[in-house]
Each structure stands twice: as structure tokens, then as C-alpha cells.
Design a protein that fits this description.
The chain is of the alpha/beta class. The chain has a single domain, classed as Rossmann fold. It contains eight helices and eight strands, in the order αβαβαβαβαβααβαββ. An eight-stranded mixed beta sheet has the order 3-2-1-4-5-6-7-8, with helices on both faces. β6, α8 and β7 form a beta-alpha-beta unit.
Length: 265
């Protein structure tokens, strides 16, 4: 097992209605990764699966989710499909019910699903509907999923939440002379700043629960969000999320990280 990683083997009590299958599942760490059918999300799921975890592959497109699960299973991972559209209440509720019925709890939630602007983002001329769409997915979607999964996370002995953020969401970096974060971003970057603020507030609320929550920056990864213009691979971008998903009980919470350590807000 790579240095810094952990494997949870504790038995966790599950509700009386649980089946024998849940007792077996309780010996494994149960994770859910949203937006996991491709790109960074897929590589996060693959990395957690390589640790012996049981990983829910959250995907809005059920067919693509099923295909991703098949690929992960072929590589030896214990993966299962979780149909999940983070913008729809009923979809998120159904996803929480699926995980409860399958495992009785959730140990790790990785909020990876997100969308980019897909067009000019100068604030003075931006399409307001585009702004609403990004906020709905990148911020409200994270809150929606997190709140639906919190009851399951509270049943875990070592609960973790990882929110996929970005360097462009750092106000400190955005206002530091000489730091190049790309062009003007009137929608995408602010949603990541908003997400960082939400992460801090969750950390404050959950401070005495044992639930550790952090935001991570994958770096400039080549994905369909940037038409594959990034300089890093999806596997490289996934590494920091895997690292924060596996921090020990005395690990950090309420912070922003990249591969080099803490990133200023």
C-alpha cells in the first residue's frame, strides 16, 4: 500500500434491517465519487478501488456509468454504478437510498462532478443563464449531495468529504501579481471560490463530528472541460483527492490543497 494511505477494516454496526451482504460490505471502506464515469473522477474511483475499497461510480449518464464500472471491475476494482444527477433532488435522494441499501453507510464522499462555462466569461457580458447553470452544478449540487449523504457519513468510523475545487478559485492566487491562472473567468472561477467558502462552513459545522472535509486543486488537467488542453493527466489530477480521502483521523479539515500542500484561500 502506498505511503500515507490507509485501509479501514473495522466492523461497523448497521441497522437491524440490513442483510448479510451489508455485514460483508462493512469490512470495506465505502466511497462515492460523483462525476466518476470519465476524466479525473474516473481516476479517483480507480485509485480508491486499487486500495481495496468499494467505490460507487456516480454518473448522470447511466450508460456511461455502467461502462465505467465494467472497466473498473475488469481492472480488479470493487465498483458499482450510482445513477446521479447532482442538479436533481430526486436523483440525489435515490442515490443515497441505493448506497444505504447496499452498504448501510458511507465512509468517503468525493464531490467531483462539475461543469465549465464553455464560452467567453467576461463578467460585463456574460450570459446569466450560464452563470446559473455553473452555480447549480458546481456549488448547489455539492451542497445537495453532501446533505443527502451526511446521515450515511455519520455512521462511518472515519468519514471524509473531498470537494473538487481549482487554483482559479483561490482569491489569494487570483490577486497575486505574476500568477497566471488563464483568462478572465466571470463564472467558473467564482463558483470554485464559492465552493471553497462552503467547504469552510461545513468544516466549522462538522468540527466535532469526526467528519473531515477539504477542497482540492487537481492542477491544469487535460479533460473535456478544457478541450483537453491541460498539461497534466487525469491520473495525476486525481492524486490529491485520493490523498485527502485517506487522511488519518487527526488529519486536516477546512483547507484547500494541491500536490504541494496547502493552497491559500
Amino acid at each position: 500500500m502506498p505511503p500515507g494511505y490507509r485501509r479501514i477494516t473495522e466492523m461497523v454496526l448497521v441497522p437491524a434491517r440490513s442483510t448479510a451482504r451489508l455485514a460483508v460490505m462493512s469490512e470495506k471502506t465505502i466511497a462515492l465519487v460523483t462525476g466518476a464515469n470519465k476524466g479525473i473522477g474516473y481516476e479517483i474511483a480507480a485509485g480508491l478501488g486499487a486500495l481495496g475499497w468499494s467505490v460507487g461510480v456516480g454518473a448522470r449518464d447511466e450508460q456511461r456509468g455502467t461502462q465505467a464500472v465494467a472497466k473498473l471491475r475488469a481492472a480488479g476494482a470493487d465498483a458499482f454504478a450510482v445513477p446521479l444527477d447532482v442538479t436533481r433532488d430526486e436523483s440525489v435522494t435515490a442515490a443515497a437510498r441505493l448506497i444505504e441499501e447496499r452498504a448501510g453507510r458511507l465512509d468517503v464522499l468525493v464531490n467531483n462532478a462539475g461543469v465549465a462555462g464553455g464560452g467567453p466569461e467576461a463578467p460585463a457580458s456574460i450570459d446569466l443563464e450560464a452563470v446559473r447553470r455553473l452555480v447549480e452544478t458546481n456549488v448547489i449540487g455539492v451542497i445537495r449531495v453532501t446533505n443527502a449523504m451526511l446521515p450515511l457519513l455519520r455512521r462511518s468510523a472515519h468519514p471524509r468529504i473531498v470537494n473538487q475545487s481549482s487554483h482559479v478559485g483561490s482569491l489569494a492566487l487570483q490577486t497575486t501579481p505574476g500568477v497566471d491562472l488563464g483568462g478572465i473567468s466571470g463564472a467558473y472561477a467564482p463558483t470554485k471560490t464559492y465552493l471553497n467558502a462552503v467547504t469552510i462552513q461545513y468544516a466549522k459545522e462538522l468540527g466535532d463530528t469526526g467528519i473531515l472535509i477539504n477542497s482540492v486543486c487537481p492542477g491544469y488537467v487535460a479533460t473535456d472541460l478544457n478541450d483537453f488542453h491541460g498539461t497534466r493527466t487525469a491520473e495525476q489530477g486525481a492524486a490529491i483527492a485520493i490523498r485527502l480521502a485517506t487522511v488519518p483521523d487527526d488529519g486536516p479539515t477546512g483547507q484547500l490543497f494541491d500536490d504541494n500542500g496547502v493552497v491559500p484561500w
